[in-house]
Amino acid sequence: FIAQRAELSRTQSATLIALGNVTVDGRREKASYRPEAGERVRVEIPAVEKREISGEDIPLTIVYEDGALLVVDKPAGMVVHPAPGQWSGTLVNALLHHCGDSLSGIGGARRPGIVHRIDKDTSGLLVVAKTDRAHQGLAAQFEDHSAHRSYLAVIHGVPSASDPRLVGLRGVGFEPGGVLRIATQLDRHPTDRQRQAVATQGGRHAVTRVRVMESFGTPPAVSLAECRLETGRTHQIRVHMAYAGHPLIGDQTYGGRRRAPAKALGADAAAAADAFPRQALHAATLGFAHPLSGAAMRFESVLPPDLAGLIAALRR
Description:
alpha+beta, 11-stranded mixed β-sheet, two-stranded antiparallel ribbon
């Protein structure tokens, strides 16, 4: 419908839908949605940016590459794509130097090949498309939640089914095996547009599953948790964990000024947790079907030295 009425290609139309530039009577819908008579479909086409994004010789850790895609292990501190305030030193700048012109153009000039992203201060795996066909195939897997993404996080406290506050919290429950499931709507914070927040109305559906792998302290006061994404919203894990009362160690945006208890952990471990300079979050596992061959692909990333050092301090 959009391709016909707005005189755009189907690829351009799908991209605008994925980026949130299309609404149906004010709400977002998937590309597969069938418009009905009387509904108002609004399409916002971004203005063309004149700024040139150039390649830069920045080292990359590439764990897999073929003619259709590559998987990158991004370090903490690297921004994924250029934006106002940081037009250089990003993953996109590095990719343009490494790949030249062989990157998908669906994401536009500022996001060539970028299928999904992780925060600047989150380390770990993400997949990049080299062709438009690969981009479409990968984007479809992220949209229908068939791609597998799990993160390792160090969090305050230990989520427990016996915690009465969690039992009564909207959208929070426990599944077999003690897996914490958080299902809420996420939207921009009403007063701080740089943050996300759990919303009671509107927003986008988000589901995170959390499994405690190890706990630290006597009594336990900090946990190493595996967080598996069913959906992939902006800051999803960080917002959900803070909402559940278990924010990430080092998360200044969503964790507030919460400090690790020295009495439970010991002075050295508590100091290491309080001094950790970023959110303790690592995209550890990424799985998807190859968009051309259909072959199952799965990649794992070891913890970076800073996060491994924090966990070692907590164990001591």
